[in-house]
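> call design_seq(struct)
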């Protein structure tokens, strides 16, 4: 059932068993699991069924330390959330991504890849991906033309991705949700405060506002926040009428550890002769909806004490005129960032190379979890009176060092196998230079602001996504990521939401 919260009498009371706040990848994945469960489920969506400038303006915020995409454009505030314009690239985290790595401070999830596997398999279906297969062999068997580079696999291996159509969750799953008798979807129901009891041990209710200024109360037995990484943190921090530092923030962790994926042009690959390695260049829209990227094995990451990352190949030559994707959205933004030594930010590679032997290598890498990289509340407020969320995106030395070592190892492997050579761009050459070039971009991926850890001093939620210290508040989505892995986040968002849903069904709302 659908109810437009703007049509309710002012000060209405909405009651249910389970309340899901937000209807993006995480919120919709959860809600689908509860259809026909006999439980009275409330879904609260701040926006409506279409993207509206007035609703997007509620997402405004500043990137205070370095250029980033405009925050009000980086997430969509309506039914379906940011799946309304995601690109659909999906892959699973690797087992090492969940592990405690002594060279990566703050790493180590309280769950393993093996525990996630059944949920990944279910998530694959919801995102309309192919079979739950992420080994290159499976795709090579589909088509004899699809081959990997002839490397022995000890250092570099093909990390597989699958492509979702991309699933627009707000379109595909709108009907089942609206037709469900036990699910009530409220649109234009923006949660502006999560209100705890006086002892701050449980959530008592929610304050909801509509854009026209009506206010309603929501009461449920259990609450799941699925507002996205930035807005989950914002809502927790802004809910400070009873808990002065915000909800779940007794150890000053909410909003910290914001992570993105570095996406940056890094090197030129020149092959000795053309290679039949179509596995890395399969078109996203083709019949085999999968593609590989070059990745370093877990053993090599351990040996060199570096982060997980991959490189994609695209035919072409680096020209020296490349720009950051941030610049596309904010023309003035990149002018402020220069490399420490004032070098040119990318280097022209001399002479055009034959296209079938010349590839640009672009990095996709996890960001080391860093407490100083964070979402903070601003002094400015949005139209509904909520403080805006600003971004302080900060890096560590390990972030850049890992990219450089990746390409050194890739170059050695290519040379050893007699395949060709890898020429790093000049921003990567000096191992003492920690600066970042203006061509830096990121994946539009937001992770980590309500991180998962069994120890309340190190995490906001426990292994079941329950906020430490509160009996009935849970967080879904990539806010709970302890580390960010090297792959795009949404398959894991859905898998984590399904895992949370099972936990609530089997252990909490039994
Ligand atoms: C351009 C772009 C391309 C991308 N491409 C990929 C890709 O190829 N692969 C990939 O894996 N990921 C990709 N992503 C990331 C992907 O979109 C996110 O990982 C995913 O949408 C996160 O899901 P979520 O449910 O946590 O958040 P969202 O999808 O952002 O949903 C949050 C929901 O909460 C609602 N909400 C927020 N605050 C409140 C409130 N206070 N009260 C009520 N409702 C609220 C919002 O309206 C929205 O419905 C891309 C993102 C962008 C921007």
């Amino acid at each position: 059932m659908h109810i437009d919260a703007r049509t309710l009498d002012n000060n209405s009371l909405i009651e249910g068993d389970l309340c899901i706040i937000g209807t993006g990848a995480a919120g919709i994945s959860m809600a689908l699991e509860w259809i026909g469960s006999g439980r009275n489920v409330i879904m609260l969506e701040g926006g409506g069924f279409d993207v509206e400038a007035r609703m997007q303006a509620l997402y405004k915020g500043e990137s205070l330390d370095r250029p980033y995409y405009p925050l009000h454009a980086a997430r969509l505030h309506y039914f379906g959330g940011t799946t309304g314009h995601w690109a659909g690239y999906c892959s699973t985290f690797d087992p090492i991504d969940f592990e405690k790595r002594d060279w990566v401070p703050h790493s180590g999830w309280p769950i393993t890849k093996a525990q996630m596997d059944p949920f990944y398999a279910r998530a694959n279906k919801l995102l309309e991906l192919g079979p739950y297969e992420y080994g290159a062999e499976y795709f090579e068997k589909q088509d004899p033309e699809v081959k990997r580079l002839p490397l022995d696999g000890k250092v570099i291996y093909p990390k597989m991705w699958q492509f979702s159509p991309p699933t627009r969750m707000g379109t595909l799953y709108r009907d089942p949700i609206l037709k469900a008798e036990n699910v009530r979807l409220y649109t234009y129901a923006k949660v502006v405060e999560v209100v705890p009891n006086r002892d701050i041990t449980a959530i008592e209710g929610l304050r909801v506002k509509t854009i026209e200024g009506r206010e309603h109360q929501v009461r449920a037995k259990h609450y799941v926040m699925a507002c996205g990484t930035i807005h989950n943190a914002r809502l927790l921090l802004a809910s400070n009428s009873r808990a002065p530092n915000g909800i779940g923030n007794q150890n000053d962790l909410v909003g910290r550890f914001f992570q993105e994926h570095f996406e940056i042009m890094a090197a030129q690959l020149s092959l000795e002769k053309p290679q039949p390695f179509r596995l890395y260049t399969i078109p996203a829209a083709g019949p085999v909806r999968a593609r590989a990227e070059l990745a370093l094995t877990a053993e090599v990451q351990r040996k060199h004490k570096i982060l997980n990352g991959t490189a994609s190949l695209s035919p072409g030559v680096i020209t020296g005129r490349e720009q950051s994707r941030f610049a596309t959205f904010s023309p003035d933004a990149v002018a402020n960032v220069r490399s420490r030594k004032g070098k040119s930010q990318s280097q022209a590679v001399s002479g055009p190379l034959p296209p079938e032997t010349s590839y640009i290598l672009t990095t996709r890498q996890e960001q080391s979890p860093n407490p100083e990289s964070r979402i903070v509340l601003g002094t400015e407020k949005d139209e509904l009176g909520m403080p805006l969320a600003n971004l302080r995106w900060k890096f560590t030395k390990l972030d850049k060092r890992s990219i450089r070592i990746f390409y050194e190892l890739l170059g050695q492997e290519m040379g050893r196998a007699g395949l060709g050579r890898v020429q790093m761009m000049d921003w990567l050459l000096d191992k003492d230079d920690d600066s970042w070039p203006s061509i830096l971009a990121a994946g539009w991926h937001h992770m980590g602001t309500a991180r998962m850890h069994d120890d309340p001093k190190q995490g906001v939620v426990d292994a079941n996504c329950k906020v430490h210290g509160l009996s009935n508040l849970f967080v879904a989505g990539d806010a709970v990521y302890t580390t960010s892995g090297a792959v795009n986040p949404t398959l894991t968002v859905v898998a984590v939401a399904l895992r949370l849903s099972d936990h609530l069904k089997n252990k909490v709302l039994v």
